[in-house]
């Protein structure tokens, strides 16, 4: 008798949990999707605000002038033939 009672209660609990999961998980996932869409739209708005007008140039880094650099006219060039 105890086994039958346990099985009936277990089946009822599993049925209730299955019903809850069927209704709660889609709502949870929809909330996550909505949040991701809001973050993406906020990033797009921020990107649009940061855009510069056409023709403007922004230089982030100017390398320092190199002293003692070897010019392209100097150096060694070796002629070669392709051997087949």
TrEMBL record:
Chain segments annotated as transmembrane: 6-25
UniProt keywords, alphabetically: Membrane, Transmembrane, Transmembrane helix
Comp. bias (Low complexity): 40-54
Coiled-coil residue windows: none
Annotated organism of origin: Mucilaginibacter agri
Residue numbers spanned by region Disordered: 40-84
Record field: compositional bias (Acidic residues): 73-84
Superkingdom in the source lineage: Bacteria
Protein name: DUF4834 family protein
């Amino acid at each position: 008798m105890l086994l039958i009672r346990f099985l009936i209660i277990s089946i009822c609990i599993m049925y209730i949990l299955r019903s809850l999961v069927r209704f709660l998980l889609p709502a949870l996932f929809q909330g996550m999707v909505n949040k991701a869409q809001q973050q993406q739209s906020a990033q797009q708005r921020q990107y649009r605000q940061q855009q510069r007008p056409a023709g403007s140039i922004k230089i982030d880094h100017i390398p320092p002038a190199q002293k003692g650099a070897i010019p392209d006219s100097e150096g060694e060039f070796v002629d070669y033939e392709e051997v087949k």
